[in-house]
Amino acid sequence: MTKNIWEEFAINAKDKMPLYKQIIHQVEGMVHDGRLKPGTRLPSERKMAKLLNVSRMTITLANEEMKARGMVRSHQGSGTFILRGPRAKEVERDLDLPVEFAYPTGEINQGMDEIMRHGENTHLINLAGVGTAPEVHPGIELSQCFSEHLRKNPILLQLPSPTQGYEPLRLEMISWLKKVKIEVKLNEIMIVSGAMQGLDLISRLFLKPGDYVVMEEPGFLGAADAFKATGAKILRITLDEEGIRLDSLENMLMQFPIKFIYVNPTYQNPTGVTMSLKRRKKLLELCSKYGVLIVEDDPFSLLYFEDKPAPPIKSLGSDNVIYIQSFSKYLYPGIRLAVLVANEGIIHNLSKVKQRVDLHSNNLTQIALHAYISEGNLENHIWKLKSAYLERLHLMKELLNEGPYIHCKLPEGGVFLWCKVPKEIPTDRLLEFAVKNGFTFVPGNWMSGVGMFENYIRLAYTHPSLEWLKKGIKLLHHTILEYKEYQF
Amino acid sequence: MTKNIWEEFAINAKDKMPLYKQIIHQVEGMVHDGRLKPGTRLPSERKMAKLLNVSRMTITLANEEMKARGMVRSHQGSGTFILRGPRAKEVERDLDLPVEFAYPTGEINQGMDEIMRHGENTHLINLAGVGTAPEVHPGIELSQCFSEHLRKNPILLQLPSPTQGYEPLRLEMISWLKKVKIEVKLNEIMIVSGAMQGLDLISRLFLKPGDYVVMEEPGFLGAADAFKATGAKILRITLDEEGIRLDSLENMLMQFPIKFIYVNPTYQNPTGVTMSLKRRKKLLELCSKYGVLIVEDDPFSLLYFEDKPAPPIKSLGSDNVIYIQSFSKYLYPGIRLAVLVANEGIIHNLSKVKQRVDLHSNNLTQIALHAYISEGNLENHIWKLKSAYLERLHLMKELLNEGPYIHCKLPEGGVFLWCKVPKEIPTDRLLEFAVKNGFTFVPGNWMSGVGMFENYIRLAYTHPSLEWLKKGIKLLHHTILEYKEYQF
User: Fold this and answer.
1) Which one, A37, A234, A372, B82, has the greatest CB density within 10 A?
2) Contact present, A461 and A389 (Cβ < 8 Å)
3) Between A140, A230, A360, which is nearest B102 by CB?
4) What is the C-alpha to C-alpha distance for residues B226 and A355, in angstroms, rounded to an integer?
5) Omega before residue B138 within 30° of 0, cis
6) What is the DSSP string of B185-251?
7) For residue A207, what is the nearest residue in chain B, using CA coordinates?
8) pLDDT score of A427
9) How confident is the model at residue A458, as a pLDDT?
10) How far is A481 from chain B (nearest CA, A)?
């Protein structure tokens, strides 16, 4: 490749297409026709701006979008590189019909499928999916409480089920949410079938092709799938120790038709980082200024080990924030219930969408959850969970320190560890060895929108029994050694 | 209006736009600028074809699509008329945000909202929504069975929950579906959160703007909403005593990009009509010929009073059919569970969509349903239901005959009556009087895609207690008299 390829770029300031888009377009064309090979390093932003005679901000925007699209990737310190071309679309419709699919099944992340599939294989030690530790699983207690409650009130299953949720449960949520300092009225609450459904309803109500969503890099892959299913694009922003970085956000807000910013501010999935109060305020201020919504996913914040984390962004008081609290981590994932809080107008419209999607969440589980919470059981249960998880966390620390290759920062709460392994170990390859050896985890790059974090892994420590957890970490050390040997 | 307005039509055979579309386009423009007034009768198809110098089939196609779009309506014997212009879009977003919605909230049928809202008002006698008669409600029995089952197998709530559904329940479905003569393999079955979710998943997988769906006129309004939410259009076909008419279907299949045909062949909602076996076979043959899917909604067929109805189209053996059996009518609507049967490739892809929508249906209810069915309870329960509903049906017949204005054909199964009232009574107006008097029903035109069936009502007889049911029908007679007096 000649060094002068960048000079072949034809950027025209008079063209209607914004400059950064022209740049992306040119890069795309050059990758397509082979003039730009995967692995090629892009000139620095400063140099590129000079070469193309555009502002540096234009280059930043182009790079951010190319990262979001997975066209390039950045390595801190070493620059930005063209990624390998898009993977060939999976062809696996074993149906013999002349019918085309409308849903973008080929573009969704396969990570979630694999996490689910591995989770179903009960012979594997599951360090990938987040479950509930068997020693503190509330299933039996929850169902006893439910049967007792129903015995006393046999009419309950015959009551109407509004789309916004079982009313006694929604009323209970008003006081429950005070625990996280959220003050809310009944019509600002709806019950959804898990946070995933909340994200799907929000996506369907607000997003269409051409819209943009900003989310953390790395971040929750299920959320990314829900957004992409609408045809919207995702812009990714990395985190520092205070949460999502805001330095490039304002530029993005000015340049892109952004519909909302999706964040998981407390014990973020997967990094465990908690956004500082100052950052929460600043994010809210920026989004209010640009009239952009914040979607706040808060599944872990009651699982703090010592100090309470900063309160949810929603509690800082704004109609701009849609807040989701899932019960998957506080009870167990199979319960598929979450509470969604937003301004009344948004709730009203989300309910309209939900009505066309499943009418309402099933009443049996809602009645069970209401019985459990209203008798004070959930609060007690969360104390039990925290003590069990803190014990597990200490165990993990000890076990992980037994080998030289895994480095994790201990989180202040939540349900997993974000760990770094040596640079030469791509963890999605390592996973193949792991599955062969009998355990699973989530490779870092599955949580990335731009193919980064290849030498990271997410370890959930809540699913297996203590015995299997120990065994799993031993196998992890063993598997890394095995992989390193195989490499050389 | 001059008689010659039809001669102003500018149809150009050389134009790329199909002729029938040109006609629709012209009608639209003329309604818009006021040259064609609501109520104007269109010339007969034969005459119109001659006037515009096009084939009669072109006129049929244009009329069918205009009906489907709600632009015109037909009265048998008296011709086709321009309808009143589209209603002003509801403006009710009480949110003060500069955010646009992507979901077509303004275009959805408000009927479902009203049925749900009235259902939540427990002071109203509910003849609108389909519920489970209180004297045979299985709630207590189901939950006792569930608790007992869980006590014996305390690990159940800790098991992984695959997106396709709780495996023991799916296995149970293999034998359950034999009752309706459907022979199926495990990978051809998935569990969904109610038939509504099944229809939503199918719509999202297959439909995009520009696609067409054929459904019965009148037909299930929830289904129409699910299809329209994707931007697809609906073509409506009326029924005769053997089910959906097939005489115009083949023309439609040739002319429109139809993705699937949605039918409810047994005790059709709302007419109660059951499609004959001959018609089922012919429909399947036509759809196979044109490579079009059939979506078969079968929520009532086990609720036959005397003779078993014809077997489901799915049982006639074809990969072209997606079959949905809801448990809402066999147990109770709040349970939100249905079984969906299709070719393995379709199930695989529907599961991918479901994974992004809610991961999986909640396990508590799936385990409860499995326990209930596997112990033979559901089969016994359905016998109880049938005897209770037959009793109610006879009661209804007697009560309805007490007044002179309501005429219903008794159905051979299912959960409601489709009744005709005098022509001068538009039943959506009547509903306002009914609600004031303390009861509800579904006005016929809510089930229509083209504003027909204005003097029909759908009466569900399964929801209220027997006492309230009697009271409700008395109130119905009274309300019709009141409305007639008010009119004159």
Assistant:
1) A372
2) yes
3) A230
4) 10
5) no
6) -GGGEEEESSHHHHHHHHHHHH--TT-EEEEEES--HHHHHHHHTTT-EEEEEEEETTEE--TTHHH
7) B102
8) 94
9) 97
10) 30
Lowest mean pLDDT among A3-7, A163-167, A361-365, B292-296: A3-7
Return the residue in A292, A358, A367 with the most chain B beta carbons within 10 A, the one to mutate for interface testing.
A358
- The pair phi, psi for residue B301, each rounded to 5°, is -65, -20
- CB neighbourhood size of A189 (10 A): 26
Quote the ipTM score: 0.81
Does residue A337 belong to the interface with chain B, where contact is any CB pair within 8 Å?
yes
Q: Does A123 touch chain B (CB under 8 A)?
A: no
Mean pLDDT of B421-442: 93
CA B448 to chain CA centroid, Å, is: 9
- Chain A: closest CA distance from residue B402 (Å): 30
Q: Choose among A315, A332, A330, A232: nearest CA to A281.
A: A315
* Rounded distance between C-alpha atoms, residue A245 and residue A251, angstroms: 12
Please state, in angstroms and rounded to a whole number, the distance separating the CA atoms of residues A284 and A276.
Answer: 12
Interval A272-311: pLDDT, tens = 999 999 999 999 999 999 889 999 999 999 999 999 999 9
Q: How far away is chain A from the Cα of B206, in angstroms, using its nearest Cα? A: 5
A94 vs B contacts (CB less than 8 Å): 344-345, 348
Residue B211 in contact with partner chain A when CB distance is under 8 A: yes
| B427 interfaces chain A, CB cutoff of 8 Å | no
pLDDT digits (tens, 9 = 90+) for B124-162: 999 998 889 999 999 889 988 998 888 888 888 888 889
Of the candidates B464, B474, B482, the residue with the CA atom closest to the CA atom of residue B123: B464
User: How far does the CA of residue B364 sit from the closest CA of chain A (Å)?
Assistant: 7
A158:B336 CB<8 A: no
The pLDDT score that the predictor gives to residue A86 is 39
Amino acid B224: pLDDT: 95
The second-level CATH assignment, the architecture, of B111-131+379-487 is: Alpha-Beta Complex (3.90)
Interface membership of A225 toward B (CB under 8 Å): yes
Question: With an 8 Å Cβ cutoff, is B352 touching chain A?
Answer: yes
b (16+ CB within 10 A) / e for A253-284: bebbebbbbbbbbbbbbbbbbbbbeebbebbb
Q: Which fold has domain B3-82?
A: Arc Repressor Mutant, subunit A (1.10.10)
Residue pairs between chains A and B whose CB atoms are closer than 8 Å = 278
Residue A461 structure tokens: 């420590």
**What is the residue extent of each domain of chain B?**
3-82, 111-131+379-487, 139-375
CATH number for the domain whose boundaries are B139-375: 3.40.640.10
Supply the mean pLDDT for chain B. 89
What is the fold, at CATH topology level, of the domain defined by A111-137+379-487?
Aspartate Aminotransferase, domain 1 (3.90.1150)
- pLDDT level of residue B75 (50, 70, 90 thresholds): low
Of B211, B292, B356, the CB nearest to A226: B356
Asked if B417 has any chain A CB less than 8 Å from its own CB, the reply is no
Q: Express each pLDDT in A431-459 by its tens digit.
A: 999 999 999 999 999 999 888 999 999 99
Q: What is the chain A residue with the closest CA to B223? A: A356
